[in-house]
Automatic annotation (TrEMBL):
Residues 45-175, 225-306, 391-505 form the Plastocyanin-like domain. InterPro entries: Cu-oxidase-like_N, Cu-oxidase_2nd, Cu-oxidase_C, Cu-oxidase_fam, Cupredoxin. It comes from the Bacteria. GO terms for molecular function: copper ion binding; oxidoreductase activity. This is Copper oxidase. Pfam families: Cu-oxidase, Cu-oxidase_2, Cu-oxidase_3. Belongs to the multicopper oxidase family.
Length: 514
């Protein structure tokens, strides 16, 4: 089904209001519910799941140093609106819909982090084996950054998020305020997602066919999902009217599998000022920006010399495989509003200070493989270091330790690897020969180590780990101990079974966080 581009105005998510203030800070309540929303002028309303009946969810905005509490209320119906295929996770077939919410990129105590097994069902009637609670506490002690919240329920995260359970979370601080960046209506979140629709407007998600030739359960879950429509802030290919001036865009790739490479067809650059963990050291001028699932880029676009023009935000990775697939375009900017007053905002050269972790004493180096495998039925699945979710914890740093993680990708494609609790720095990527690795398991380097891209030299919580490269990260495990996770953020991989526990051990305590 074709849909006309650039006929709907870009929606801006509203900001969540707190219910009250108490001694633990502002208190919010968020309901997860089923509802319908119009995602395109010519599409019938789509049945979705969302936070407070919105897709994407309302934006949560906080100031650094001001803790908040959020009660995440599961009010979803009993049955999933998407097909749940068989996987090794029995719990995926639980008779009730399970949710648990994770604040991606945040420094949060384990019991508020959204551990995949900390799920609960409608009205909190049944709870999973971990951290039985629905009121979460966010300390907001970290620097200003664009974070996001989303579902993280064991085995069905891809379905819950595809149904709509994601929203933005912005931390502000004084240092950032001093930079005089475009603000107010000139600071705009862009949540980019891909979807495919059925004719009746409902979401399409592939169901794996039963294999008639065997009596095994279904083949494994779909190993990827690529939609043929692109949505920004919940509208298919929207347009946005702008003034001829500078705007700040906080861009989030909240797609299940799809990566984008963004360009502007006016041949203008993006001035990137921030990444996952907040502001970079200095602004970098980018002609194209690659963004993997879960990554954020904070950019300024200057429309001041483009009055009267229409500028398209393009995606160089749009495959254009079928005539239905027009994913080479994302949205449009119409520079047709009159300039209201003078634009006094800045594109600063130096934006912040990022202390390097390179000179820390290194407590451990972990070599971790990203690899394909098969499950007990011979069905393909992807694994982290050849271990499944259920295998005992192996990534168990001490609280305060600095570690280097070397991610060796022996699969044929990039995996966006995400680690909870901390923000890391990328050291380098080094290419090796995959053929000789596959022959005798030995690493033969085909080049020297490559420094991270200039826009990757800040704090990151999600990193592109490309095929046939060793991607090295450095990180310090603070400020909390306990049970977290790390995983591939391609949701189809995360669910089956590219996710592992991460246990930060406080050597001063015997019971570590449980
Ligand atoms: Cu954005 Cu563990 O996830
Ligand atoms: Cu996360
Ligand atoms: Cu992956």
């Amino acid at each position: 089904m074709k849909l006309k581009k650039f006929v709907d105005r870009l929606p801006i998510m509203n900001t969540l209001k707190s219910e009250r203030k108490n001694k633990k800070g502002a208190y919010y309540e968020v309901q997860m519910e089923e509802f319908t929303q119009k995602l395109h002028r010519d599409l019938r309303p789509t049945r979705l799941w969302g936070y407070n009946r919105q897709f994407p969810g309302p934006t949560i905005e906080v100031n650094k140093g001001e803790p908040i509490q959020v009660k995440w209320i599961n009010n979803l119906p009993r049955r999933h609106i998407l097909p749940v295929d068989k996987s090794i996770h029995e719990v995926a077939h639980h008779p009730e819909v399970r949710t648990v919410t994770h604040l991606h990129g945040s420094e949060t105590k384990p019991e508020s982090d959204g551990y995949p097994e900390a799920w609960y069902t409608r009205n909190f009637k049944e709870v999973g084996p971990f951290f039985k609670r629905e009121i979460y506490e966010y300390p907001n002690r970290q620097r200003a950054a664009t974070l996001w919240y989303h579902d993280h329920a064991m085995g069905i995260t891809r379905l819950n998020m595809y149904a709509g359970l994601a929203g933005m979370y912005i931390i502000r601080d004084e240092q950032e305020k001093r930079l005089n960046l475009p603000k107010g209506k000139y600071e705009v979140p862009l949540v980019i997602q891909d979807r495919t629709f059925n004719k009746d407007g409902s979401l399409f998600y592939p169901r794996q066919p039963d294999d008639p030739a065997s009596d095994l359960p279904n083949p494994s879950i779909s190993p990827f999902f690529i939609g043929d429509k692109i949505l920004v802030n919940g509208k298919v290919w929207p347009y946005f009217e702008v003034e001829p001036r500078k705007y700040r865009f906080r861009i989030l790739n909240a797609s299940n599998t799809r990566a984008y490479q963004l360009t502007l067809d006016s041949n203008q650059p993006f001035y990137q000022i921030g990444s996952d963990g907040g502001l970079l050291q200095r602004t970098v001028k980018m002609e194209k920006i690659a963004i993997e699932p879960a990554e954020r880029v904070d950019v300024i676009i200057d429309f001041s010399k483009h009055s009267g023009k229409t500028i398209t935000l393009k995606n160089d990775l749009g495959p254009n495989a079928s005539p239905e697939d027009e994913t080479d375009e994302v949205m449009q900017f119409d520079v047709n509003l009159p300039l209201s007053g003078t634009d006094h905002s800045n594109i600063p050269q130096k934006v912040s200070h990022i202390p390097s972790l390179r000179h820390n004493k290194i407590n451990a180096i972990r070599n971790l493989k990203l690899a394909g495998s098969t499950d007990e039925y011979g069905r393909p699945l992807l694994l982290l270091d050849n271990k499944k979710w259920m295998d005992p914890v192996t990534e168990n740093p001490h609280l305060g330790a600095t570690e280097i993680w070397a991610l060796t990708n022996i699969t044929g494609f990039t995996h966006p690897i995400h680690i909870h609790l901390i923000q890391f720095q990328i050291l380098d990527r080094r290419p090796f020969d995959l053929d000789s690795y596959n022959k005798d398991g030995r690493i033969v380097y085909t080049g020297s180590a490559i420094a991270p891209e200039p826009n990757e030299r800040g704090w990151k919580d999600t990193v592109a780990a490309p095929s046939a490269q060793i991607t090295r990260l450095i990180m310090k495990f603070v400020p909390y101990a306990g049970d977290y996770v790390w995983h591939c953020h391609i949701l189809e991989h995360e669910d089956y079974d590219m996710m592992r526990p991460l246990r930060v051990i406080d050597p001063k305590r015997l019971d570590h966080g449980k």
